[in-house]
Amino acid sequence: MRAAASRGRRYPEPDHAFRSLYQRDRERVVHCTAFRRMTGKTQVLVASVNDHHRTRLTHTLEVVQVARTVARRLRLNEDLTEAIALAHDIGHPPFGHAGEDALNACLAPHGGFNHNLFGLRRVDELEERYPGFPGLNLSFEVREAFVQHAGADVEEFRAAGRPLLEAQVVDVVDSLAYDTHDTDDALGLGFITLDDLAAVEFWGRAAERVRAHTPGLSGNPFRTAVVRELLAWQVTDLLDETARRLAGANVRTLTDVRAAPAPLVGFSPEVRKLKAGLERFLRERVYRHHRVLRMTANGKRVLTALFHEYVAHPELLPEKHLRRWDGADAVIGRPPPGWVTANRQPLPGLERVVGDYLAGMTDRFAQAEYRRLFLPSLDL
């Protein structure tokens, strides 16, 4: 995908003197508030457990690194790939998938909650960095990746066709990264042991490779080497299989990509099978570990309680967020300041405003808000 062939931005802007369209997208994502907040959001475990396991931000940076490698090798657009990768988790709420489940339940009568579609809403409307338009005004190609990753039916993107190769790469690399790194974090936190993993074929075969080329390793050096071997194996397989699919489908143009009957980026059948075995192990032994379940239950409880409290008492919302609701004047009793509502789409209902506020929180801030509202204290 070349920048010159882009479908452009929602609000036209002049070209930059020395930065391409997708370079600017990438840098707008990096400088936005939602990107910074990912450092305090759960990947699998609440972000305050220790300083070593992945957060949503460090996971994103690992996805970016691998995705750029794949894009360069396949001669794709690296800037576009990186922009999509940097933004792909920007819509995640606090407490990981548990937070998403809680918000989806709270908002079920109002359209539900999906982190990919919230990511699009975040970059289209909720970020406030430019006085001339709402959001970040990203290119069509970065924005469509949110919708296609969600598998949602959104009219603006309905006729686009199959995702661009750059978006397909990010989607597959995301899965590659979290499978491998969730395994690494679970070992580091003591949820599982190396002996537990010996029965997982993917891990076992990677471990055999490590023992063959670096005999004598044990403990953490061995664990690190096997994780690195798993990553390298998957990336190499992804490149080989994707090149085979592109050649077999005779892909030459963007039209060929958009019209392809099946995904063009992916793993070989062997690696897909091995990866599925690792994922089953993670679901059974890590994602349902009692410590993880306690964290997720508490996260759901916090967000559900906050949601209902803010809906019942909207005056508790910060004015910046309350102003996104069309009933704010009656609560606040004064007109809004100038640019906060400039260039806005029709204002949403209160429940959606509350959902937006909660989804933007970090784990720590959500817990602090819960304490301020529900535990007796004189703190403001």
UniProtKB/TrEMBL annotation:
Quick check: keyword Transmembrane in the entry? no
GO biological processes: dGTP catabolic process
- State the SUPFAM superfamilies in the record: HD-domain/PDEase-like (SSF109604)
Q: Which Gene3D superfamilies match?
A: Hypothetical protein af1432
Annotated keywords: Hydrolase
Q: Which family does it belong to?
A: Belongs to the dGTPase family. Type 2 subfamily.
Identification of the protein by name: Deoxyguanosinetriphosphate triphosphohydrolase-like protein
Please give the organism.
Urbifossiella limnaea
As recorded in Swiss-Prot or TrEMBL, the protein's gene is named dgt
